[in-house]
Amino acid sequence: MSQDLNKIKHSTTHLIAAAVLKLYPKTKLAIGPAIEDGFYYDFDFKEKISEEDLIKIEKETEKLIKANLVFKKKKVDPEKALELFKNQPFKLELIRQLKKEGEKEITLYESGDFTDLCQGPHVEKSSQIGAFKLLSLAGAYWKGDEKKPMLTRIYGVAFKTKAELKKYLQQLEEAKKRDHRKLNRDLKIYQTSDLLGTGLVTLLPKGTIIAEEL
């Protein structure tokens, strides 16, 4: 992952979090890193959301990108950070952990009226984010611990240009066409049963022919 693309992905997560708070003010924020295939941000929504809501979040995020917001790095002491995030329990947990580890300064990034706990790096201005797309929702335990709260994870991708985004989305569509689950539905090669266990398959006539030929 190039450093420039990493900055774009990471910066996009901040703006998505800002957009979510504008649309759903009671939401609690967890973390939002860049990853190899894009990015994600974990949220504790107080209302139920679906993948249809991603379009609304996208539109709100696009407004922030067009506003050409500046990403400002800021360092504060742990006590100040605890005060700033007093209504965000997951951020408070992270700050307390950093304080326990001996950190004397907590790094924050401001973009417009939104501030997030973050080491960076980021783009200088939101207009440097070329194109992004929110792809899906998933459940994720806080810190990967099943004893901790289940959060809603929003996955997405971001690129330097719209052309790169278009190419990536086309590749995703092609991959879906070749997905073995879709191919099986279309070609009727095998079936599964809850009685046998979903990991076990029963060959249908077409599947038996393929097995015999092999």
Provide key terms for this protein:
214 residues, alpha+beta, 2 domains, 5-stranded antiparallel beta sheet, 10 strands, globular
Question: Describe it for me?
Answer:
The protein has 214 residues and is α+β, with helices and mostly antiparallel strands. It has 7 helices and 10 strands. Helices cover 41% and strands 28% of the residues. Strands 1, 2, 3, 7 and 8 form a 5-stranded antiparallel beta sheet that branches. A 3-stranded antiparallel beta sheet has the order 4-5-6. Strands 9-10 form a two-stranded antiparallel ribbon. It has 2 domains: 3-162, 2-Layer Sandwich (Threonyl-tRNA Synthetase, Chain A, domain 2), CATH 3.30.980; 180-213, no CATH class. Helix 1 crosses helix 2.
SS elements, strand count: 10
Spell the H/E element sequence: HEEEHEHHEEEEHHEEH
The name of the CATH superfamily of the largest domain reads: Threonyl-trna Synthetase, Chain A, domain 2
Strand content: 25-35%
What is the CA-based Rg, rounded? 21 Å
Amino- and carboxy-terminal Cα gap: 40 Å
Structural class: alpha+beta
What sort of overall outline do the alpha carbons produce when their principal axes are compared?
globular
Number of domains: 2
Low-confidence stretches: none
Proportion in helices: 40-55%
CATH topology annotation of the largest domain: Threonyl-tRNA Synthetase, Chain A, domain 2
Average pLDDT, rounded to a whole number, is 88
Q: What is the CATH domain class of the largest domain?
A: Alpha Beta
Largest sheet: 5 strands, antiparallel
| Known CATH architecture of the largest domain | 2-Layer Sandwich
Q: Please count the helical segments.
A: 7
